[in-house]
Amino acid sequence: MVEVPPLKIQIRPGTYARGLETVEQILRAALQIMVDEGYRALTLRRIAEVCNMKVGNVTYYFPNKDLLVREMIDSVLNSYEEVFDSILNDLSRSPEERLKSVIRLILDDIQTKKTTNFFPELWALSNYDAVLAERVDNVYRRARGVLNQLIPLINPRLSEGEREVVALYISASLEGTTIFAGYNKPWAHQMPQIENIAIKALVDMVRSITSEDIWKLQDNAETFNPIPVVFPARR
């Protein structure tokens, strides 16, 4: 099983080796706090406590919490992109085999405590924070990049927009298993079977889906009139 590193930190201009070690220590502590204690516990003071340093040392590199969270999210995503790129660029394997590897990687990763706790925390926060919502949307846009590159290799008949919808569907299908079969979730023990079903269903779908399949209900959308439900009046 391929494991995704917790973080991959990009060297910022002016950050020397010693500073990079401190930045990594701070970001690792922040990620661990968010996974173990939740976003509300993520304060600069709490991070300093975990790192056994003064708050001023934390604010030297991250003057505010928003900057730290943005850097943490980017570092988490960078680690995924590195693994996805290694799969995408393995030209010794067919596009379908590479897609299977991406699906399995995502579902394996969902079984970790980090992913089960970290990403749903972001989902909840993004409902109330427009800036964070934009960051989270960007996370998934970038994550779907590997799918958008593999889909046309398997099914070149789809347009660019249709490929993006298919990639979105795959992403939503996989991420949705987090609340059911993620770390310590009720159906976590059935993840091996879920993986096999997902690989079979999603790869077959990518291979065979047509433009007509995607759009055929569109013509009927405006004429669909659901029967209104009338509830009895309260007495």
TrEMBL record:
<dbReference type="GO" id="GO:0003700">
    <property type="term" value="F:DNA-binding transcription factor activity"/>
</dbReference>
<keyword id="KW-0238">DNA-binding</keyword>
<dbReference type="InterPro" id="IPR039538">
    <property type="entry name" value="BetI_C"/>
</dbReference>
<feature type="DNA-binding region" description="H-T-H motif">
    <location>
        <begin position="43"/>
        <end position="62"/>
    </location>
</feature>
<dbReference type="GO" id="GO:0000976">
    <property type="term" value="F:transcription cis-regulatory region binding"/>
</dbReference>
<dbReference type="InterPro" id="IPR050109">
    <property type="entry name" value="HTH-type_TetR-like_transc_reg"/>
</dbReference>
<keyword id="KW-0678">Repressor</keyword>
<dbReference type="Pfam" id="PF13977">
    <property type="entry name" value="TetR_C_6"/>
</dbReference>
<dbReference type="InterPro" id="IPR001647">
    <property type="entry name" value="HTH_TetR"/>
</dbReference>
<dbReference type="Pfam" id="PF00440">
    <property type="entry name" value="TetR_N"/>
</dbReference>
<feature type="domain" description="HTH tetR-type">
    <location>
        <begin position="20"/>
        <end position="80"/>
    </location>
</feature>
<protein>
    <submittedName>
        <fullName>TetR/AcrR family transcriptional regulator</fullName>
    </submittedName>
</protein>
<dbReference type="InterPro" id="IPR009057">
    <property type="entry name" value="Homeodomain-like_sf"/>
</dbReference>
